[in-house]
Amino acid sequence: MGTFKIEGGAQLKGEITPQGAKNEALQVLCTVLLTPEKVTISNIPDIIDVNKLINLLRSLGVKVEKLAHGTYSFQADEVNLSYLESEAFKKEGAALRGSIMIVGPLLARFGKGYIPKPGGDKIGRRRLDTHFEGFINLGAKFRYNEEEAFYGVEAEKLKGTYMLLDEASVTGTANIVMAAVLAEGKTTIYNAACEPYLQQLCKMLNSMGAKITGVGSNMLEIEGVESLGGCEHRILPDMIEIGSWIGLAAMTQSEITIKDVSWDNLGVIPGTFRKLGITLERRGDDIYIPAHKDGYEIQNYIDGSILTVADAPWPGFTPDLLSIVLVVATQARGSVLIHQKMFESRLFFVDRLIDMGAKIMLCDPHRAVVIGHDFKFQLKGIVMSSPDIRAGISMLIAALSAKGTSTIQNGDQIDRGYERIDERLRAIGAKIERID
After folding, report:
1. Is the pTM of this model over 0.85?
2. Would you say 129 is a known binding-site residue?
C-alpha cells in the first residue's frame, strides 16, 4: 500500500489543471461496447479505477490503442463473450464498482450481460436494484447466483417502455440509457439522474447515432435505433477535483488558479464554497482564489440560524465534496452543520481530524457540526489511514495545512481518484512525498 508523507504549513502558489472527470470516464468508456466501430475518447484520467476498466475492456476483446496521454481509441468488433463466465472476469469485475456499467451495453448489443458483485469505496450500502429493475422493465430476465455473488441479465430483444426510477441513481440511469438506445421502440425514463456526466454520456450516444431527448432534465426519452457508429468524445474536467483544489487553496491560505474548469458545468459548487466565506473569481474559464490572509467566515441563514450544507442529486450539491467542505470549515470563522444524506459511512473519518485538533461533533453517521478555529489554532500532523478516495483527499488537505509532519497510509485509495497527485501538488509548492 502506498503512503504519503506531508510536511504541512507551506503556502502554495501557482496554477493547477484538473484531470478529466473520473465519474464520466467510467460511464463513457462502457459505450464502446455498443458499436463495432472505432471510438476515440480524450481527457481520460490516468487513475487506478479508470485503468482497471480499460484493462477489463481489453480482457473482453476490445482493441485499445493509446494515442497520446489521456487519449485512447477503442474498437469492440470482436468481443469475447465467453470471458464473462470465466474465473478471471469474476475477479477482475469485482475489483471495480464501475464495472457494473458494462452490463447495459452488453445486454443491448449481445442479449446478455453478467457481472460479479462489484467492490469500491467503503462508504456504506450502494444497492444495484435500480440498474436491474430498469433492465427487467426493458424485457430482460434477471438471475442471481447467491453463492458466487454473480448477477446476470438476458434478453432476446429489449423493448422500450415507460419507467419511473425508484431513485435518481447516476450509474443506474447511465446503465439503463445504454441498454435502451438499442431497444425496440420508445423508452421514457422518469426520475432520471441529470448530472453533467450523464448529460455528456447522452450527448456522446447521440453523436454515435442514438436518439435521446430531454438531456439535462429528469425525464429522458429514447427512440431505439438498430445500431450505433463510432465517434470522438472529450471528457469534462473533474468537478470533484476542482472542489478539492478550492478547499486546498482556502485551508493553506494560498493563491491558486484552477485552469479550464468548465464553469457552466459546476452548478452550485462555487456558490457553496462562497457560503463558507471563500473568495472565488471567474477569469474566463478559470477559477482564481486569492490567498485568504484574513481567513474566511461562514454565512448564517438570513434568520441568523447555523448554515447547513447537505448533499442532494444534481443540481444539488454533490456528496463527493461534502468531506472537503467539512475540512475547510475547521479553519473558518463560525460553525456549520454537514449533513451527508446519501451514504452511511462517509463521515467516519472525522475522528482523524479530531485527533489533529479540529472541533467537530459527530451527531450520528450522517451529520456533523464543525466549529471553526479561524486559523487561531493550527491542526497538528498525525499518522492516519485513508478509508476511501474522498476522505483521503480531505485528510491530505488537512495535512497540508497542519503544523508538523503527517503520514497518510493506504494512499492507494487517493490514487484511485486523483492523477499523479504528489507531483502536481509539488509543482505549486506542497511538501509531499510518496513512500512505497
Report:
1. yes
2. no
Of all residues in the chain, what percent are helix, strand and coil, respectively (each to 5)? 35, 25, 40
257 & 170 share domain: no
Q: Which of 49, 121, 311, 388 is catalytic?
A: 121
| Statement to judge: residues 222 and 279 lie in one domain | no
- Asked whether residue 305 falls in the same domain as residue 321, the answer is yes
269 Cβ contact list (under 8 Å, min separation 6): 239, 242, 243, 246, 317, 318, 321
Domain that holds residue 41: 22-234
CATH of the domain at 389: 3.65.10.10
Which residues are registered as beta bridge partners of 370? Answer: 336, 360
Which amino acid would we find at residue 345? S
Q: Let me know if 46 is a catalytic residue.
A: no
Is 320 annotated to bind a ligand? Reply is yes
Q: Are residues 247 and 335 in the same domain?
A: yes
- Consult the annotation and say whether 97 binds a ligand: yes
Give me the number of domains the chain comprises.
Answer: 2
Q: Give the integer Cα–Cα distance in Å for 188 and 221.
A: 5
Query: Are 284 and 192 in the same domain?
Result: no
Mean pLDDT of the 370-392 span: 92
Task: Specify the pLDDT at position 257.
Answer: 98
Q: Would you place residue 114 in the very low, low, confident or very high pLDDT band (cuts 50, 70, 90)?
A: confident
